[in-house]
Specification:
With about 500 residues, this protein is mainly alpha-helical. The chain contains 17 helices and three strands. Strand 1 and strand 2 form a beta hairpin. The relative contact order is 0.13.
Length: about 500
């Protein structure tokens, strides 16, 4: 996720040439400099290149990174699943708090990525560096606070889920203390990925995550089951493997940062960013962070409902959601790409490219959502059996995958549109729509759960996702109309 030292923004030109825009030390903006031939750059030109190739060049590594992260999680689940559904339930309950932490770091990541994209699109490298540094500083502060809170209140946090087996509770507490106590690596990775993407470099995060996944695949069986002098640590081993792999990703990203040419040379991470930059980052990031955290809290409440059907039901939800993440993490990755694309072009006042980029992205994620639907609906049993082999659990898991499968295309559109709206700085609008209709899952789950049992809760997830996907799409079309009107007014002026 990072790179060296060079004050310039690379812009691709036809015939394999590129123009380097170098830093104007007086204004902090970019001015043209001579062209160079034959040099490959990691940063994609989002302002001038053809939309589909530019968007694809940025999005494919991000989607691949999302797939790597999905494989990362599924590897954990596959090994933990061999310990039984109790261990899966323990990791699943503790994992809710690592998910909750993603909402907290989203404040720094989203605010930093959006404002950095805008500054790069405007050609203001100095401001981009300030926003990038401020985002990283805020990330570290949030990580420390979260780590302390989860370790101080580990037992009551796990008791919330009303787990029925004491060993499961003990395993969950240990996992929570380790995974959240060292959450700083996960936080840094998320924010750094956002900053690299804002600068048009999605390949470096992909390579870093591949290295991390390789480490995790080796460490998981070694630490969970033990080998030679390494003791069997079970759930604690899974947490240590995850944190170690995340630390490796952080190290790769930091070591690579010196080679990046668009953003990182302008960042002074160890000098506190002025408060006005923090304030803007927080203003943009808080709605996105609250949206993610409230979404997680709603899922935690629903998990409490699910616990009424026993620890097996919680294990089904945990494994099922990890399998389903093949769809939503990929769509979220594409949302990250369209966020950077929209952010830079919005900053550069290229509203036509904003619209075309979104429609192109929407077509791609719709196709991906349909493919995922087919896989989950028609392959539910063999897919779920890969992770849990207990006979009484497999039918429950297959039902989860089939029911959630019907919502995949709509969920993909929701996540991608969320990224596009955030790229315009409209994080508040995203949060309002998402929070209202995600909250509706609770009364819907109560009603449908009473009528249909456990499957009623899964249908509450699916129906709300379908509604959100449709609403987000039409809301964005309305926003695009507003942008087109602004563009016409500017032309007349």
């Amino acid at each position: 996720m990072r790179p060296p030292c060079f004050h310039g923004l690379v812009v691709y030109l036809p015939a394999g040439r590129m123009q380097v825009l170098c830093d104007d030390t007086e204004s902090g903006r970019e001015r043209p400099r001579k062209m160079e031939d034959g040099r490959m750059e990691k940063n994609v030109d989002l302002l001038h290149g053809k939309i589909l190739p530019s968007l694809t060049a940025l999005a494919v590594p991000i989607m691949a990174t999302a797939m790597v992260q999905t494989a990362y999680n599924l590897t954990d689940m596959a090994w933990v699943g061999r310990l039984g559904s109790g261990a899966v339930a323990a990791v699943g309950a503790a994992g809710m708090y690592t998910w909750l932490s993603s909402g907290l770091v989203a404040i720094a990541r989203m605010g930093g990525q959006v404002k950095t994209s805008h500054a790069i699109g405007e050609g203001n490298s100095r401001e981009a560096g300030m926003f990038g540094a401020g985002a990283l500083q805020l990330t570290v502060a949030l990580a420390v606070v979260f780590a302390l809170a989860t370790n101080l209140w580990a037992h009551p946090l796990i008791r919330f889920f009303a787990l029925q087996d004491e060993k499961t509770v003990a395993d969950a507490v240990v996992y929570l203390r380790i995974a959240c106590g060292l959450i700083i690596f996960s936080f840094l990775n998320q924010t750094l990925t956002g900053l690299y993407t804002a600068a048009g470099d999605s390949r470096t995060p992909f390579l870093a995550n591949c290295i991390g996944m390789g480490a995790n695949m080796i460490l998981d069986p070694l630490l969970i089951f033990g080998l030679g002098p390494v003791p069997r640590m079970e759930a604690a081993g899974a947490a240590i493997a995850t944190v170690t792999a995340q630390a490796i990703v952080t190290a790769v990203l930091v070591l690579s940062a010196g080679k990046e040419r668009v953003l990182f040379p302008h960042m002074q991470v160890f000098r506190p960013a002025p408060w006005r930059f923090w304030k803007v980052i927080i203003r943009i990031g808080v709605p996105a962070g609250l949206q993610s955290m409230i979404y997680c809290m709603i899922s935690m409440v629903l998990t409490r409902f699910v616990s009424a059907w026993g620890d097996h039901a919680i294990a089904v939800q945990r494994v099922g959601s990890q399998i389903e993440s093949i769809s939503w993490m990929t769509a979220d990755g594409f949302g990250t790409a369209i966020n950077a694309f929209v952010g830079q072009n919005y900053g550069g006042r290229q509203f036509g490219r904003v619209k075309k980029g979104y429609m192109t992205a929407a077509a791609i994620v719709c196709v991906w959502g349909c493919i995922t639907t087919a896989a989950l609906v028609f392959g539910a049993v063999p897919i779920f059996r890969l992770f849990i082999q207990e006979t009484e659990v497999i039918p429950l898991g297959a039902d989860y995958l089939r029911i959630l499968g019907y919502s995949q295309m709509f969920m993909c559109v929701e996540l991608m549109t969320n990224g596009a709206l955030s790229g315009l700085g409209k994080t508040f609008s995203c949060s309002v729509i998402s929070i209202i209709f995600t909250s509706a899952r609770i009364p819907l789950a109560i009603v449908l759960g009473g009528l249909m049992g456990l499957n009623g809760i899964w249908w509450a997830f699916t129906l709300s996702s379908i509604v959100k996907g449709i609403l987000f799409f039409f809301f964005y079309l309305a926003v695009l109309k507003g942008l087109e009107s602004r563009a016409l007014k500017q032309k007349k002026i």
